[in-house]
Write a structure and sequence with these properties.
heterodimer; A: about 220 residues; mainly alpha; 8 helices; about 80% helix; globular; B: about 220 residues; about 0% strand
């Protein structure tokens, strides 16, 4: 079941990565979209590692695996794309928009609460408690900016409005990998498969959403 | 023989070091990074030995999960210093990081060659030469690409480099796992070439397009 689940995500993410690569890795193309393409590459590599590990007789639940770094890398790219390229266009950090910045904190707070409930105080092995903490640490900034750019009013450039669908997808992706890690920590194969199906659909939809968003922004 | 790794290190580094003042400036920078790569490989061998002892000599797990991380992190440190202190020029960084990776692989290959002399064959040399060396070069070059943002876009640099390092570690881990497996080892052998060839083709196409554009501009 874990093998099928990882193959689904790997194929979808690899498809998105190749499509994004052909679309955005050209001169004068949006760095924002390049970052998201690389995040899909990270997801695909991480899943490929898991697939190879399973095919060579290993398992994913007993000890730390490098495939986990794929999740962390993708979250860093999500954070980097929002914070490093778009945030300065979206938010001038004036007092007027403090309300939205505070509301956006709901995402990291929810992540911390999920970690406390599912991992720290849950009946899982110490390795998963540590992995859950590492995942939460990287989910905090990425989810904050995703939620912020999802709810922030579009005042000047019109870019936020066009990228809202992507930010929504990124938030769902973050929640799905969180639940997937929980399912793997308890060895619940069916829940892992469901989470991977959701992750697969999200990763496949991400680049077309960005393409549509950027096209809308320019016209 | 005891201290073989240090003997090998001296034998490799000393002539290269002596040749440094005599070679041209452009080649010198590549040579310096090959030397740094060789030194990084020596350092990593000590760290990996220590980790292997800590992990109770669980070689398959250590080589597919722990050593990719230590090797990539240690190879990235000189590039990071180079990008911060000397230049953040992308082409220079890519060339230097690739040279560092190749230097690393050169030392690693030679050490393995000496240690397992009885089981070495031409096939082994071809595989090590075309796959392992290339894999080290590609992984370090990927991290070098991220570091080219060090001064231009700091917000991107920190996260981008970290994420590219993650990618390089996973790629290295996949390679190690594939080449150690019985059924999938041939996929491991072709993985670096399958990554390297499209990149080279893309670079050649880009270079030819640029040349053509320059010639057209001259003609006008």
């Amino acid at each position: 079941m874990y093998l099928i689940a990882n193959i689904i995500v790997c194929v979808c993410a690899l498809g998105g990565f190749i499509y994004g690569g052909t679309k955005f890795f050209r001169p004068k193309k949006a760095l924002y979209a390049q970052m998201i393409t690389l995040s899909l590459g990270c997801i695909a590599f991480g899943r490929l590692y898991n697939i190879v590990r399973l095919m060579t007789g290993g398992n994913l639940t007993d000890s730390f695996q490098l495939g986990f770094l794929g999740l962390i890398g993708s979250l860093m790219f999500f954070f980097s794309s929002n914070y490093g390229t778009v945030d300065s266009l979206v938010d001038d950090y004036s007092k007027e928009f403090t309300k939205y910045r505070v509301i956006a904190l709901a995402a990291p707070v929810a992540a911390v609460l999920m970690y406390l409930g599912l991992f720290l105080f849950g009946n899982v092995s110490p390795i998963w408690k540590i992995q859950g903490a590492a995942l939460t640490l990287f989910v905090l900034p990425a989810s904050y900016f995703n939620l912020k750019h999802l709810i922030f009013p579009d005042v000047e450039f019109g870019v936020v409005k066009c990228l809202r669908p992507y930010n929504l997808l990124a938030l769902i992706y973050t929640a799905a990998i969180f639940v997937e890690c929980f399912a793997m920590s308890r060895d619940i194969e069916f829940l892992t498969l469901i989470c991977c199906c959701v992750t697969g659909i999200i990763t496949a939809a991400m680049i077309p959403t960005i393409v549509r968003g950027l096209k809308k922004w320019r016209t | 023989m005891e201290n073989m790794i240090y003997i090998l290190y001296i034998c490799m580094v000393a002539p290269l070091l002596l040749s440094l003042p005599l070679i041209q400036k452009k080649s010198r920078s590549v040579m310096v990074f090959i030397l740094i790569g060789i030194s990084a490989a020596l350092f990593v061998s000590e760290i990996n030995g220590l980790l292997l002892r800590i992990m109770d000599y669980d070689t398959p797990y250590v080589t597919t999960t722990i050593t990719p991380a230590t090797e990539e992190i240690i190879k990235a440190i000189p590039i990071l210093i180079y990008a911060f202190v000397i230049t953040d020029n992308r082409n220079k960084l890519l060339g230097s990081s690739f040279a560092l990776g190749i230097g690393f692989a050169l030392f690693e290959n030679t050490y393995i060659l000496i240690n397992s002399m009885e089981s070495i064959s031409i096939e082994w040399a071809i595989v090590r030469g075309f796959s392992t060396a290339l894999m080290h070069g590609i992984c370090t070059a990927a991290v070098g690409y991220g570091m080219s943002f060090v001064k231009k876009r700091k917000k991107l640099f920190y996260c981008g480099t970290f994420s590219l390092l993650m990618m390089a570690i996973i790629y290295h881990g996949i390679f190690n796992m594939l080449v150690q497996s019985e059924d999938l080892k041939y996929f491991g052998f072709i993985l670096p070439l399958a990554t390297y060839i499209p990149i080279v083709i893309a670079l050649i196409v880009r270079y030819m397009k640029r040349k053509k554009a320059e010639q057209e501009a001259k003609a006008v």
